[in-house]
Amino acid sequence: MPLFSSKFTPKTIPVRRQDTSVIRNEFGSDYASKELSIDLCPLKLKLGDFEVTFEEGQWIPASGRAGAAHKENLRLKRELEQLEEENNMLRLKFEILLDMMTDKTVEAENQEMQRAQSLGSLKHKSKKQKW
């Protein structure tokens, strides 16, 4: 055993495997699959006849009555959002038409007042001429 030299050499640390869940959460599964060349399929859990998948942070029923109900709920939510947007557009159009009608009404009243004033001034002038 040598006195002045050391035979101690530390073991090399194994390279850490990159955690794909962080990349998936940060950039999305499409980015992770492209950059890391890995196939990330959704996590599936099956308990008897009941099957659920984990997508975008939520457990979604994939089969059975719950799966059909979930799909129907998603369809109804999309339809509700579409109808709400249409309702908002119709409200906006109604407000614009109401404003336009108000402007036209004010203009018509102003024109009537001007006509009445001009007729009144003509009558007043004709009375002065008679005297």
TrEMBL record:
InterPro entries: Chibby_fam
UniProt keyword annotations, A-Z: Coiled coil
Superkingdom of origin: Eukaryota
Basic residues bias (residue ranges): 122-131
Chain residue ranges for the region called Disordered: 110-131
A matching Pfam family: Chibby
Biased composition (Polar residues): 111-120
Residue ranges the record marks as coiled coil: 66-100
Entry annotated with the keyword Signal: no
Protein name (Swiss-Prot/TrEMBL): Chibby
